[in-house]
Write a structure and sequence with these properties.
four-stranded parallel β-sheet, FAD/NAD(P)-binding domain, 31% helix, alpha/beta, 8 helices
Length: 270
Amino acid sequence: MANRIVIIGGGFGGLACAKELGNADCIVTVIDRRNHNLFQPLLYQVATAALSPADIAEPIRKTLGRYRNINMLMAEVVGIEPTAKRVLLDHGGTVEYDRLVIATGSDYNYFGRDDWRPFAPGMKTLHEARLVRQRLLLAFERAERTTDRDTQRDLLTFVVIGGGPTGVEMAGAISELGRFMIDRDFRNLEAEQFRVMLIEAGPRLLAAFPEKLSSYAAAYLKRIGVQVRVVNVFSTSPAKVSSSRARSSRPAASCGEQVSSRPQRRSGLD
């Protein structure tokens, strides 16, 4: 009997593993909570209305359809029984395996402050990208309706927390989108009221990259109107985001790049 290989997760890692096993002498089952693969590096462009969700998502069955030995199940893994060699699914079913691959990816790390999550959604799913886009566009519409200048400035202040690649891309895209819309689409708003703040708790942006690239990114963001704040301590609440150098009365619009690997959280495992 051919080996039964179960892959938990249909992201980059899970699909790469499945493709390597395609048409091999084994039976492969890919299990994921969603039936599509997502190109996450471009989620920020969905969040800023530059791309539609269909541009960065593809059904997992379409990706793996040419491999006749691979099956895909849309389900959530809620447990693993290593002795019995089977995984438990949320609908009560089980899948037996000879080899198990766990490729559940990573999740955002809120550093023990999960109460931030409703106010600063991450950038891992289409739902989160749509939520950020909705908040962005509705803020402009609400600002257009009011005649109070302070209220307009509050509504047009957006905070991105996290100066990694996603945070840097997100802040730049929001700045370019906002200035373009104010100039072309809105009659009661002025560019001077619009602010984008990028807050990084570390010593510099893009800490994983060479310092030269970090300095270039910071200079470019400032050139397109992003206020970069490199701080040691910051806090947030439903009413404001504050740091040792900056304060905003608007909640954070997006949480940036800091992630942690948490298979148990992504897959429902204990």
